[in-house]
Amino acid sequence: MIPKQIQSRLNAMPLFWKVFIFIVALLVFVVGLAEFILEPLAENALDGIYGGFQPWHEVVIWAVSILIPALACGYILSKILSDKLGKMAKASKALARGNLEARLPENGNARDAFDVLAHSFNEMADAIKTQQQNDRRLLADISHELRSPLTRMTVATDLLNLKHKDEESVEISLRLEKEIRQMNECISLLMGQARDKLLYSGIKNAMDLGKVLVELADDFSFQGEMQRIRIKAAISDGLVVYGNALLLERMFGNILSNAIFYSPSGNVIELEAKREGDNIHVSIRDFGPGVPDDQLEEIFRAFYRVDSSRARTSGGVGLGLALAREAAILFGGNIVARNAHPGLCVTATLPVYFDDEE
Fold first, then answer.
1. Rounded distance, CA 37 to CA 163, Å?
2. Closest Cα to residue 172, out of 157, 192, 155?
3. Which residues pair with 223 in a beta bridge?
């Protein structure tokens, strides 16, 4: 083990000097190995014929002394660079998908270009996280302030219905009720988004995801009875994740609600959950019109509406899938969508919970 003091000094050195010291040390090692170990062994092993090869042994030793350090140095240098770039690419990809906790490790070395880049990346990620928190707080405050006037508007439409019974007044009243209902739904989802953050930062336990999905499948099968839509579930055993049950229900409930909304009457929704390696994959497929390929990523953006046959004509505010992906990211996973021809398949990937005591 390298002492911490020496290790910290090595980390503080620029990459050039690290490589230089490694090359010099490797050269000394190889030359010493050839001169004091390999050459005596060769003399003993080739006793009698060694003299014929002796003029070349210096050339061989120096060739080996140059080639081996060069190969080792090239490999190690490329490994260091590829590892650093790989970590940066992984963190950038995670940040782009909405994981605002993605960060790069820092050594505090201002003379190391990679460390300076890592520090700049982390500062950018902190700024984005702060900005999103401020935006979310503003949305929650606005949503809260809108609740009171919307409640008064609801009461006003009820009074309008009582006082005016003519056809025109009833039509206007019904239109107002519909718009108020949609606004209330939007506000509830926005406030739910803030609550989801609190849920994840609160109590977290090892959860049986299979049990949560079975209960959701039963609930949404009942909900889809009016449209003769049933849910066909294939859920494996031993699907355990770490988090909050209510947040899991909200996440997969949003995806199932979206699937039911777009499923043709008398059709089926396929729900599959299985473990692959260290991840659990949950796929929910409907048999609706699908989504244009160039908009498969956009449907996870808040308030986005698809300009196709899948576009909403009533109900919904375009927040369900956006909130579902945000919840998945909170769990350390992600959600993607693909066209299943026919229909849309939304797949959530969550990390498996491992018990440290096992």
1. 107
2. 157
3. none
List, in order, residues 6 or more apart from 221 with CB less than 8 Å away.
Answer: 230, 231
Distance CA 223, CA 356 (A): 40
Peptide linkage before 14 cis (omega within 30 of 0)? no
Q: Are 321 and 254 in contact (CB under 8 A)?
A: yes
Model confidence pLDDT, tens digit, residues 23-74: 777 777 777 776 677 667 666 665 555 555 555 665 666 666 667 767 777 7
Per DSSP, the three-state class of 240 is strand
Q: What are phi and psi of 303, to 5 degrees?
A: 70, 10
Residues 6+ apart with CB under 8 A from 248: 207, 209, 212, 241, 327, 331
C-alpha to C-alpha distance for 228 and 210, rounded to whole angstroms: 24
Measure the CA–CA gap between 189 and 317, rounded to whole angstroms: 9
d(CA 316, CA 312): 7
Identity of the amino acid at 186:
C
pLDDT digits (tens, 9 = 90+) for 255-314: 998 898 888 888 899 999 999 988 999 999 999 888 888 888 888 887 776 654 444 444
CB 89 within 8 A of CB 104: no
* Cα–Cα distance for residue pair 217/195, rounded to 1 Å: 24
Contact 345, 296 (CB under 8 A): no
Task: Give the amino acid at 133.
Answer: Q
Tell me, yes or no, if the pTM score tops 0.90.
Answer: no
DSSP, res 163: H
Closest CA to 235 of 259, 217, 254: 217
In the chain, DSSP finds a helix count (H) and a strand count (E) of 9, 7
Distance of CA 355 to the CA centre of its chain: 22
